[in-house]
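Everyone, describe these structure tokens:
***
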Amino acid sequence: MPASPYSCVLWDVDGTIADASVGILRRLAVALTHFGRPAPTREELVHWIGPPMFESLQAQAGMTPDEAADAVTFYRTLGRADGYTTDVRTYPGVPEIIRDLHAAGIPQATASSKPENQVDAIIDHFGLRPYFLATVGATPDESTLASKADIIVESLRRLKERGADVSRPVLVGDRHHDVDGGRANGVPVIFVDWGFSAAHEGDDAAFRVTTPEELRALLLA
């Protein structure tokens, strides 16, 4: 049975396990148009996927906090109507790594800035629930639990609560928010290049991989 240098593995979701960009772009176009802002292009999605939506609406659309809060509510309404798994796909090879980590006895949890109910929907839709000891995401309004640093803390807390060894964690992610959140908690980050990042975002990660095969080699020896 393969072993791992890590006692547990935390996973970002958008851009790491799953590509939900088609649905995100469609809902963003509707929401931003509704609030009198220009819809983002496909190329601009790199700025939107990963951070909390409340943060992105202010940084990318120039909204005030109050405007962003209203827009988040509208955007979430679209998501509920659309279905959280519509037009979502997993990245080839990643579910297999998750299953193999579970088979090797390595506890896993999500650590996503996506609202937790949406994380749950994606994990369940792709049959990955049996392989995760905890699924952790942001609170629905992104007000109580939103920053990646805090989400990592919560992921480790829930793993520990369920009896997992959290002494040597690692986070797999695709944005600088993952790198920054990992650094804030002393958690090394394996940065994957198949997500929605700008080229420089993984510069400070502990490791950087371009294929699932390279990721597997780091997680399972």
About this structure: The helical segments are 21-34, 53-61, 65-82, 94-103, 116-125, 148-161, 176-184, 212-219. The longest helix spans residues 65-82. Residues 17 and 94 are 6 Å apart (CA to CA). The chain has two domains: 8-19+89-219, 21-82.
